[in-house]
Amino acid sequence: MTDLKNAALTASAVLLAVLILATLVRAVIGPRFTDRVIAVNMINTMAVAIIAILSVRLKEDFLVDVALVYALLSFLTVVVMVRLVLVRHWRKAKCTKSEPGEKEAEEHGE
Do the beta carbons of residue 46 and residue 2 sit within 8 Å? Predict the structure, then answer.
């Protein structure tokens, strides 16, 4: 592999690492849970890209398998996190929603 290609791959991996750090700050700051979910998804996607770059740079085929497994785990992580958000939203909606006349019945002891 040429030196220019190696330099480009290394520079790409370093740039992605810096972007991961910037996205990590966003994940910590938030402010909403959905912002954190998106930031974690971005971090995982960039990590998969770095692993793929390393696979080409080091000429190691097994790293492609590692990248695929990591991408699958990343997807499952996001699905679980979104499920948690939905369950929390449904519980909050269920608690705030009441049937007409329900409060009056509770007040009168019915």
Answer: no
